[in-house]
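Sat 14:20. Reprocessing the chain from the morning session after the first attempt stalled halfway. Input below, unchanged.
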Amino acid sequence: MIKRPFYLNCLRETFTRAPIAALLGPRQCGKTTLARMLMEFHKATYFDLESVPDQRRLENPELVLGDLEGLVVLDEIQLNPKLFSVLRVLVDRPENKADFLILGNASPDIIKNVSETLAGRVEFLVLSGFDLTEIGMDKWEDLWLRGGFPRSFLAASVSDSQAWREGFIQTFLERDIPQLGINIPAAAMRRFWTMLAHYHGQTWNASEISRSMGLSDKTVRSYLDILTGTYMIRQLQPWHTNLGKRQVKSPKVYFRDSGLLHSLLEITDSHNLLGHPKAGASWEGFVIEQVLQIVLPNQAYFWATHNGAEIDLLFTKDSKNYGIEVKFNEAPKITKSMHTSLSELRLEHLWVIYPGKKAYPAHEKITVLPISQITELPYARH
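Finished this time. Tokens:
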């Protein structure tokens, strides 16, 4: 088992500020395992809302939960959204002696009314799959190929990892989506998801995709929002400034887990990956996701203008702008576009992240950085 001390500490800190912590993230990313790690240090009661006996125990939730003390874990909370109003009543009672940890597979936008019902009483923490700080910087190639889902990454072989991911995709489409009350045929969503794999790293173009699928722009937009709300897809929004230039205004679309992307692209091993036309786009998405998990900026964007200037990732910390450019190249070149972004976005520094082994300065404000040294980025957790 791979320990996840950073997230454990985040949960502990959350309970010093709020009576309810919501641990959200995709199915099978390790939320229940993390909750059980936390339960080892507390008097705890656990409910699995997929379990029929636990469902029966909670037929009168206010009575059952109101008598509990210590840590109370409610797993798969999205299956019973009515519990949110019960929790609001319980934590507002002066005699309440419990902290509640709720686990869910969908964002607050998908679990209707959670933010409004528990406003001021809950803090959200999003858990993703493993990142490089957890599995070791020298294992980035395995993490890129297999993705960060624990059972995929830790599988005994590449073929076992591939089989697990295929099963995950099927279960997600046939069970998880309907459980959220979303009535979309699994075959249609699979087709859309597969098509989206070929658009990974590109600017969203609803009209092009809708024509290919014979659906309306509104329908494919709703499909994209569902995959975003269930933590499968990241929509990286464009940075807008008053530069007097025509800028790209649609989001870029990335798979949050490179392993799922590779499954949908039928990439089975490292050899297939390196020779695949989407290898560069896959690498870009993988690096961006690692940066976001390790630096944890409040907001992140990409920047692109219609005359060709662009930067893959822009984030702000302490009122300073920082840039990330991703290159799938052993000897990345410093481009005119990088210099343009330095001046026009007033970047404090720009890092070019590549799959090589050595870090070196390419300019007073540009550093070429190997993926294995990603924790040298400012504000990165170790």
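The radius of gyration is 22 Å.
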